[in-house]
Design goal:
The protein is of the alpha/beta class. It folds into 2 domains: about 240 residues, Rossmann fold, CATH 3.40.50; about 190 residues, Rossmann fold (3-Layer(aba) Sandwich). Strands 10-9-8-11-12-13-14 form a 7-stranded parallel beta sheet, with helices on both faces. Bound molecules: nicotinamide-adenine-dinucleotide (NAD). The site of nicotinamide-adenine-dinucleotide has 30 residues, from α6 and α8.
């Protein structure tokens, strides 16, 4: 069977019932990132220096310890051409510093050490810091780096971006990207990557645990035991085998959950705004109301978007079967928690699990109180209601997967220019330049999205064969990748100067 294909944005192909695909595309690679830029085989670590063009005096090349094997067809490790005025690390650390000429990455907020190790092995100079930096610290320290990795506490503001002219890429080692001024970053040609789907499995497993826990009133029995109460009962406690699970939103999490639930003997129905191929024996239903009417357990896995905010209110809970259960591990604003409290207090629902809230405390510790909403004290009194502090995706495995996905994205962008998975850039990629393509160079040109740019760039490249080229735009930003062949070493700087001289130019990099 061929490898599962995914859309560039990680979205599985939608299907219609009349035209089912021949295989079910499970999102193994969360982003669906093809291996194109690295070619059929990843580069292999080697201590031997690579052959590089030497460019004219005054310009720099970055020397990296990573090298591809000299096997025909294997992706060639590319080196960035740097103009003469490019600020190299020796300016900060003095001549002879071991970091001279290496690309430098700053990892903040104690990012998974595996990620740091991966980036070091890929030939980058990595500084790993356990804490978050303030804006002042970033302005002082980040200008020395080509890339930064953060989690949610470090704010990359417009001021920080302005202070860091050589910053090329920001990796958010988390789901959200609110902590970065995405527009400013795009306008400055700084690509931003995150990892929205690395914790899908963790969430799906938590939902399975909640389904069983609710069905057996597990947390209430445990609380009673801690209070010294022996309360052995079977009334109102059920097996989940043979029950119907209704999944709202059949994306990365919903579809994984579907498979797990069927393994427990549940029947799965799902509702999604687009037609999607079912996994296993699951069935898509036509409306949310149909799902609510039929399911014994309803679980939400939709994004927070205008269409989904408040999608579960009093009317929707009334449509659920009496004695059914409700689970929300998606986003807090999707559910009216007052209405949920009423549905539970009236006994219409037999239980619920809530992991996400419209407002959440900023830090661990006391703070889950009525400042976050008037429904909080009510929720705390309701039996068979599992309340968790947004831990759906919080596992060691998910952290490792996030580390791996984002460090790979950083490394790929720096090394070969691919923006697949970027949140603020058009997603562009080209297949690899191989070891056979010795006199090829790759032009990576971030520019303003305005008429005439392609014509101008192609005129500059006209004396060479453009082997492959791909351009896309997102809002005011466009990104062009082009591989040109038969380029003499003396021509590299000239091509760079001509392309980057245009008023539409935001950032031009040449990789060879
Ligand atoms: N609790 C946690 O810690 C945690 C962790 C990860 C993700 N999440 C949240 O889980 C949710 C789902 O994540 P995912 O990775 O599966 O997302 P996804 O983008 O892969 O899937 C979302 C699905 O919802 C569907 N959808 C959109 N609007 C809809 C609507 N109005 N009705 C029905 N379906 C609709 C989409 O078509 C898509 O198939 C997101 O809100 C995400 O933020 C929570």
């Amino acid at each position: 069977m061929s490898a599962p294909q995914s859309m560039p944005n990680g979205r599985r192909n939608s299907v219609s019932a009349s035209d089912p695909p021949q295989f079910i595309p499970i999102p193994v690679n969360p982003r669906g990132v093809p291996q194109s830029s690295y070619g059929p085989t990843s580069p292999t670590l080697s201590t031997s220096p690579r052959n590089t063009f030497s460019v004219s005096p005054g310009s720099h090349t970055r020397q990296r310890s990573l090298s591809s094997l000299a096997t025909p067809g294997v992706a060639r490790q590319l080196t960035a051409f740097l103009p003469a005025d490019y600020p190299l690390a020796e300016e900060e650390d003095g001549p002879g510093d071991k970091r001279q000429g290496k690309q430098r990455i700053l990892l903040l907020e104690n990012i998974n050490l595996d990620a740091a190790e991966y980036l070091k092995k890929a030939g980058f100079e990595v500084d790993h810091v356990t804490k978050a930096y303030s804006e002042e610290e970033l302005v002082a320290k980040l200008p020395a780096y080509d890339a930064v990795g953060i989690r949610s506490k470090t704010k990359i503001t417009a001021k920080v971006i302005d202070a860091c002219p050589k910053l090329l890429v920001i990796g958010c080692f988390c789901i959200g990207t609110n902590q970065v001024d995405l527009l400013k970053a795009a306008q400055r040609g700084v690509a931003v990557f995150n990892s929205p789907f690395s914790n899908s499995r963790s969430v799906a497993e938590l939902v399975i645990a909640e389904i069983i826990s609710l069905s057996r009133q597990l947390l209430d029995r445990s609380s009673e035991m801690r209070a010294g109460i022996w309360n052995k009962l079977s009334k109102g406690c059920w097996e989940i085998r043979g029950k119907t699970l209704g999944i709202v939103g059949y994306g990365h999490i919903g579809s994984q959950l579907s498979v797990l639930a069927e393994a427990f003997g549940m029947s799965v129905i799902y509702y999604d705004v687009i037609p999607l191929m079912p996994l296993g024996s699951a069935r898509q239903v036509d409306s949310l109301q149909e799902l609510l009417n039929r399911a014994d357990f309803v679980t939400l896995h939709v994004p927070e978007i205008p269409d989904t905010i408040g999608m579960m209110g009093a009317a929707e809970f009334a449509h659920m079967k009496k004695g059914s259960y409700f689970i929300n591990n998606a986003r807090g604003k999707v559910v009216d928690l007052d209405a949920l409290a009423s549905a539970l207090e009236s006994g219409h629902l037999a239980g619920a699990a809530v992991d996400v809230y419209p407002k959440e405390p900023g830090a661990n510790g006391p703070g889950f109180n009525d400042n976050l909403g008037p429904f909080i004290p009510r929720l705390r009194q309701i039996p068979n209601l599992i309340l968790t502090p947004h831990i759906g995706g919080s596992t060691e495995e998910a952290q490792r997967a996030i580390g791996s996905e984002v460090s790979t994205a950083l490394s790929r962008y720096l090394d070969v220019g691919t923006t697949l998975g970027a949140v603020n850039f058009p997603e562009v990629d080209l297949r690899a330049i191989t070891t056979q393509d010795e006199r090829h160079i790759r032009v990576c040109h971030v520019h303003k999205n305005e008429p005439g740019v392609l014509k101008r760039v192609n005129n500059i490249l006209a004396d060479h064969n453009i082997e492959k080229q791909f351009s896309d735009s997102k809002g005011d930003i466009a990104y062009l990748m082009a591989d040109i062949s038969d380029v003499g070493e003396e021509e590299v700087e000239n091509i760079y100067k001509q392309i980057s001289a245009a008023s539409s130019n935001i950032l031009t990099r040449l990789l060879y």
